[in-house]
Amino acid sequence: MAFSLVTEHPLDLEGVFRFLAARAIAGVEVVETHDPQRLRYARTLALPGGPSAIDVVAARGPGGWTVRLDLELAAADDEELVVARVRRLLDLDTDPIEVDASLAGDPLLAPLIAERPGIRVPGVMEAHELVIRALVGQQISVAAARTHLGRLAAGLGTPYESRFRGLERVFPAAADIAGGLTAPAAGEALNPDRVLRLPGRAIASIADTARVLAVGDLRVDADVDPVQLRAALVARPGIGPWTASYIAMRVLGDRDAWLIGDVALIAGALRTGVLDADLTRPAAHRALARRAEAWSPWRSYAAMHLWRVAAVSPPRAR
């Protein structure tokens, strides 16, 4: 099936696909961004009707973007669910004009909005998977997290044969992760051949969180209230405010999430002149959080701008 987008307003799909590409798990996802006029995102899914896959191609022409969604479903009843998730993944239902107009009121953000209008906050196709991704990615780089998640998928995921190029397996379900990860006992040496090569405390937190997700004691889906979700997450060992806000941003589409302690946000703020360069790191985080209050209710979108600047831009003179 295919659907077309009305693109009278700016839509930064290239930014969304590049964000997904940096985090793509080998065998589970394939992202192609080498041609900015034709972007591709494909992945496997564990749906109610069984293992499935999607292939999303966004093509930019004179009239704007056209997005084609091809489905490989185990059950036809899952079609409506998948289409809704793809719309959330690409953040197609937020008004970019309202977001940009609000954030451009800050003179230091205005050049970023002018350079990249219609910025989007990528959603997710699998909520439980995103929780595991966020836990694995705590305190390490995006590239390192991608490597660890690739090993996890290879070790515990389910093989899958797809007609979509590059897809080979389904990311492991929460129950498979809970049963497949064994945290070392106190003082026990870590096995170098283990599925997830993280410190023992991190492995224990991931396995325990996977267990409560699997049995339903922790509910993470798009219908949960953001405040309740954050509270439930930070109440668990090994999950801090940054992780809780990131999950709310990606799973719930929380447009006003703020990621306290994010070093990339500080880097982006320094490069745009939002922060003074002589601040200590704790002071910089506090100052940026105060500055971000003026960006509400669109702080998630402001964060996307600062992340992009931190990734691609050299420092800018204040």
Kindly list the characteristics that best describe this protein.
five-stranded antiparallel beta sheet, 318 residues, 13 helices, alpha+beta, disordered C terminus, two-stranded antiparallel ribbon
Polypeptide structure, described:
There is one protein chain. Helix 5 (127-136) runs antiparallel to helix 10 (241-251), helix 9 runs antiparallel to helix 10 (241-251) and helix 11 crosses helix 12 (281-292). The protein has a domain at 263-312. It is globular and about 50 Å long. The protein has helices at 13-22, 79-89, 96-103, 110-115, 127-136, 142-156, 174-180, 200-215, 226-234, 241-251, 263-272, 281-292, 299-312, and strands spanning 3-4, 29-35, 38-47, 50-61, 64-72, 158-159, 169-170. With 318 residues, it is an alpha+beta fold. The N and C termini lie far apart (49 Å). Strand 3 (38-47) and strand 4 form a beta hairpin. Strands 1-5-4-3-2 form a 5-stranded antiparallel β-sheet, covered by helices on one side. A two-stranded antiparallel sheet has the order 6-7.
